[in-house]
Amino acid sequence: MTSSAPPETPPVAPARRGPLRRLYDWVLHWADTPYAVPALFLLAFTESSFFPIPPDVLLIAMCIGYVQRSYRFAFWCAIGSVLGGMAGYGIGAFFWEQTKEFWFHVPGITPHSVERVTELYQLYDFWIVFVAAFTPIPYKVITILAGVCSINFPMFVLASAVGRSARFFLVAWLFRHFGPPIKDFIERRFALVTFAGAALGVGGFVVVKYVL
User: Fold this and answer.
1) Domain ranges of the chain
2) 102 burial class (0-12, 13-18, 19+ CB within 10 angstroms)?
3) Other CB atoms within 10 Å distance of the CB of residue 11
């Protein structure tokens, strides 16, 4: 009597990766291309004046892939961001009247916030730029309004350079000193990390809207 072979178990389909995870993987792949540093530079430049996605995402991805180059990545990210902030200043200084109706559709930029930031700039110009450059407060809002308010340009560049460099080099330092544990944490707690990042970004716009 012959026994029939047990039915084959169908292969288990790999778990579907959510859109955020796919975006994370897509960003991460730039660290393995010749265009990683130029992409980081351009992202940092545009985010400081008009683009909504912060450069930290790509910077972190590149630091994960090449921990020993973290400071180099932070350097180019800071340079691009400061130059982009100068472009944002120029938009506010020279093109505000022609474009303000467009900017009033950007979260955080309203006639009230322009008036409020103008008042604050008269008292705390350096510190407003520095805090926005270092924290999740939308930096582009502050750079454009700095031009609108015609604050001292060399002081603006100095505050931007200090704040942006501190922010990005802090990321690089964390990966240089705690690289493998941080990488493992991001890989295992990806949803938590993205939620926290989104919360910080939303919190920055809330600060601009209700505090400024």
Assistant:
1) 19-211
2) exposed
3) 6
